[in-house]
Amino acid sequence: MKIKFENLGKHFNGKGGRVHALKNIELEVKDGEFFILLGPSGCGKSTLLNLAAGLEKATEGRILFDDEVVADPKKKIFVPPRQRNVAMVFQNYALYPHMKVFENIAFPLRVAKMEKEKINEAVNNTAALLGIEDLLDRKPGELSGGQRQRVAISRALVRRPRVFLLDEPLSNLDAQLRTSTRAELKELQNELGITTLYVTHDQTEAMTLGDRVALLRNGEVMQVGGPEELYNSPVTPFVATFIGSPSMNLIPAEKKGDQEIEIEGVRFDLTEKQAEDIGKIKSKEVLVGIRPEKISLSPGEQDQENASENGRITLKGELSTVEPLGREILYHVGIECCEVLALSGEMEVKRGEEMYFSFDAEDIHLFDAETMDDQTRKQMQSGLSKENRKKIKKQSAV
Ligand code: ADP
Ligand code: MG
User: CB of 21 closer than 6 A to ligand 1?
Assistant: First the structure.
């Protein structure tokens, strides 16, 4: 079944005043799709999921399940949750503590007055699907977090709903279990082919699970697309820095003519496509986005005469912090404007020492500096100031 949100809006009239939780949401989830609602805390993800479930009422716009309008406040249409045939799973499992696992899973079928035989069959089948056949006689208090979440998922799926809605279902699990459950969930959804809306604030989860992802901020959709599209072609600095870990670097630069830009005193040519992108930017100030994994580092003295040769740009900086991440090392390199993050192997450089970093001109993303929001700016400026870098330099010299 497909789900369509048309110009959807939601206001809350809370104690602290009116909250515009969702604005002009236009989304279409395809039949059988695994669709992710991603964004920082408070951006409206749960609200949108609750509107789809019918747990909240929209204030503007419409929701359609296939061709059936399930919510349209203007026409006073509101199909209650039970009639929508959706199933929901929450972060906190929401199981009945006094009931055995079997009864927890059977609950929605008992409510629907299904025959006893059929209930037995459906519960056993679903439990087998989730690998919890052996737990049916236990109570939720006797289960681990991962097992409880499987029970919650079984209970949601036992009715074979038209839509499967999940609100941060893996957030309470430890890292290892989260990864394995994630893979299982993806497989299960694929197998069952139920249209799924999945809420998360975790971009890794979104990228690995989603057929498509909608990134939200302050109640608005910032970008919709496949994981690769969001990663490779972010439309704003916010999307660029939210997707990918560690975050994409954003370095202020200046437009020089149609095909050239200058970054920290180094001029270089743009590709045709980039020139086209930059043509759309009105202001002279641009942001050059470059992912940490696209930067290569080299220590010590280097000839800066050829700072932009063969489509490669070389900039000088000073090493401020080194973070070993296991397989790779994250280097923080201070330059005039800010701090640049680079992923690399081990190097013979000490903190406070000069070093060079370079990247291919074709790997950069270009943004209008004016489209940068305060949140992203703050994130960018959280790099060390020049003074702090001097301090570190002194300390590391001791
Ligand atoms: P998310 O799930 O992305 O963290 P929510 O959808 O829960 O965000 O919340 C979006 C915004 O709506 C927040 O500003 C939140 O405070 C507000 N909000 C959510 N539910 C209510 C409510 N019942 N009453 C008032 N404000 C609410
Ligand atoms: Mg939420």
Answer: yes
Q: Give the DSSP letter string of 331-380.
A: EEEE-SSSEEEEEE---S--TT-EEEEEEEGGG-EEEEGGG--HHHHHHH
Nearest CA to ligand 1 atom 15: 42
The closest ligand to the CA of 41 turns out to be 1
42 Cα–ligand 2 center, Å? 7
CA distance 128 to 135: 10
Q: Is 160 helix (H, G, I), strand (E, B) or coil?
A: coil
Q: Which residues are in the CB-under-5-Å shell of ion ligand 2?
A: 46
**Length reported for the chain:** 398
Return the structure tokens found at 279: 């043509």
CA quadruple 300, 306, 309, 314: dihedral positive or negative?
positive
Say which ligand is closest to the CA of 43. Answer: 1
Whether 207 and 218 have beta carbons less than 8 Å apart is answered as no
In ligand 1, which atom is closest to the CA atom of 41? 4
pTM over 0.85: yes
Model confidence pLDDT, tens digit, residues 296-310: 998 876 666 667 777
Residue 157 corresponds to which tokens in the numbers above? 């799926």
Distance CA 391, CA 64 (A): 59
